[in-house]
User: Which sequence fits this backbone?
């Protein structure tokens, strides 16, 4: 199960770092999505694949918490 998160994370990082324009667009989109829903677009993708409520910020805020609930 953890391997799915790693694979998705690598795919998101490699696809959004292709050019500066896509990086700016991705950052803007993630910022807007995070402000309105509390999740980034990556969180939505991980939640969809894992079929759970996933937020990467949970681990950053409290390291002992799980990403997906």
Assistant:
């Amino acid at each position: 199960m953890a391997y799915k998160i790693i694979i998705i994370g690598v795919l998101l990082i490699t696809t959004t770092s292709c050019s500066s324009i896509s990086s700016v667009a991705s950052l803007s989109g993630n910022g807007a999505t995070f402000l309105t829903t509390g999740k980034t677009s990556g969180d939505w993708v991980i939640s969809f694949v894992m079929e759970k409520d996933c937020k990467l910020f949970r681990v950053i805020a409290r390291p002992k918490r799980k990403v997906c609930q």
Notes: DSSP finds four helices and no strands in the chain. Residues 30 and 36 are 10 Å apart (CA to CA).
